[in-house]
Amino acid sequence: MPLQKYLIDNLGDLSILFEGIMNSIHDAVFLISIDDNNNFFYEYVNEAYKKQTGIKDIDQVIGKTPVEVFDKKTGGLQVSKYQECFKTKKELNYQESINFKEDDKTWLTTLFPIVKNDKVVKIIGASKDISKRKEVESALVQSEKFSNTIMSAIPDIIVRLNRDGKFLDINAPDELMLYIAEENAIGKNISETLPREVVDRVCYSMEEAIATGKMQRTEYKLAILNGEERYFEARLVPTNNDEVISIIRDITENKENQEKINQYTAEVELKNLELENLYNKLDEELQKAKQIHERILPESLPELEQVSFGAHHYPAERLGGDFYDVMELDEKIVFYLSDVTGHSLEGAMMSVFVKNTIQNYVNLVEEKEITPEKVLKYLSDQFGKENYPDDYFICIFVAVLDLNTLELTYSGVGFQTPPLLVIDEKLKELKSQGLPISKAYPADIIDFGESSCTLTEGATLLIYTDGLTEQENMGKVYDERLRSVFYDYCYLSPEFIVEFLNEDFRRFNGGSLQGNDDITFLVMQINTLNTL
């Protein structure tokens, strides 16, 4: 199908995008797979995981169990957490201490279970290194040097400015993140050290912060000491002595990620437009398929002295592959009902194939050679010569009525719901089971064997597809009442039987004749001849 092909063709791009997103996340992300014995193995880790753990050789992790990656004690603790997530099927949050690079780190870990068919098949984990935060928390309790401890723990650049814009203090976790070295900036005005565009932004925000007493925020791009151009966010907070504290954060990765998201969003919008165009084309195709299907259905059914027919076809919202036909010969009547795989144009073309193939066979052979078994074998042979996929199949019931003897010969494949025959006031089922016509298996294993019975006046036959019997409403299927309704009205003419069945189905189906699948059935009746 076009949509499947698109997804397959673009699978590589989506994989690259997924990898890029995972590697842009600062937290250590890992994927746990679970085998049939409920053992846990590391299947994937992102770049942050390798960087933060110091594991350079990925083979030390991928395909390994927690005990193999860590020591027995630490690995055992990991396994116990994975087991808890696996058993509860719920998100699990916890703190843990793990030694990496001879350094104990504290991690805030979250486990997300991936559940399929009510079973956890994988676990996604995300661990955030909260060691710094834990150090700060400890320092706040143990030390009186509150301000200095906070300053040393914050990864952002913190700058103290007076009202005139003079640098009073600078604290940078990495001096390379500065535009100018700290010793060259202290005591100088920002107008002497920073580009004009940045100065204007900072001065305006600083004046607003002092005037309003509220934090102000601004963003700018700046080339730092190592030569890189980075994006920064400055949050300026006024103090009580006409000074401003500016907390400056590097937001380059956020900007880059946002650009990626914007680009991805634009691509998605473009693909949505393409899908909309595709849906419009599919709708056109569906209309064409409906027109084809309507043209090949019989406009009328034969009117004979001995036999009467009635039929009904109501397509589903999504056109299916139901079809029927009745062919009058010199001494025989050939009629059939089929249900082919495929929807829209594919299903319609399959129905055309069935109609043309059977019609060609009837036209090519002598009338005495026409039997249901031979018709089905010919249809199967021709189907095998066509270039249809293996998942295409044909379910069909074929019957031949001898007008002289009223002997009905029939054969069916693929239908699991047998045709119903009322004869001599008794309701019988006609055999119609077995494998459908398909390339998925050898044709010689399909049973085309036919059966026969002699009909009497008033005998009535109902052939139908599974769309009728499998229609469900309020937990019940129509099959449960079809037999009784047909038996109750089988003495009427086929035309009235069709009307009564439709009315009963409408009441069952909440007032609608449309089902989830095509609703199709064919009624044949031996007329009662009045004799003097």
CATH superfamily of the largest domain: PPM-type phosphatase domain
What general form does the structure show? elongated
Largest sheet: 6 strands, antiparallel
Residue ranges: pLDDT <50 for 5 or more in a row? Answer: none
Topology-level CATH name of the largest domain: Phosphatase 2c, domain 1
Give the CATH architecture of the largest domain. Answer: 4-Layer Sandwich
Structural class: alpha+beta
Gyration radius (Cα, Å) is 39 Å
Count of helical regions: 16
In short:
This protein has helices spanning 2-9, 11-24, 47-53, 66-69, 72-88, 131-142, 146-153, 182-185, 190-193, 196-212, 252-296, 344-364, 372-385, 466-469, 479-489, 494-508, and strands at residues 28-34, 40-45, 92-100, 103-116, 119-129, 157-162, 167-171, 216-223, 229-238, 243-250, 307-314, 322-328, 332-340, 393-402, 407-413, 420-423, 426-429, 437-438, 451-454, 460-464, 472-473, 476-477, 519-526. With 532 residues, the protein is of the alpha+beta class. Helix 15 runs antiparallel to helix 16 (494-508).
Task: Summarize the structure in words.
- With 532 residues, the protein is α+β, with helices and mostly antiparallel strands.
- It folds into four domains: 2-132, PAS domain (Beta-Lactamase), CATH 3.30.450; 146-250, Beta-Lactamase (2-Layer Sandwich), CATH 3.30.450; 257-294; 297-526, 4-Layer Sandwich (Phosphatase 2c, domain 1), CATH 3.60.40.10.
- The protein has 16 helices and 23 strands.
- It has helices at 2-9, 11-24, 47-53, 66-69, 72-88, 131-142, 146-153, 182-185, 190-193, 196-212, 252-296, 344-364, 372-385, 466-469, 479-489, 494-508; strands at 28-34, 40-45, 92-100, 103-116, 119-129, 157-162, 167-171, 216-223, 229-238, 243-250, 307-314, 322-328, 332-340, 393-402, 407-413, 420-423, 426-429, 437-438, 451-454, 460-464, 472-473, 476-477, 519-526.
- Strands 12, 13, 14, 15, 18 and 19 form a six-stranded antiparallel sheet that branches.
- Strand 6 and strand 7 (167-171) form a beta hairpin.
- The longest helix has 45 residues, at 252-296.
- The radius of gyration is 39 Å and the shape is elongated.
- The protein starts with a helix and ends in a 6-residue tail after the last strand.
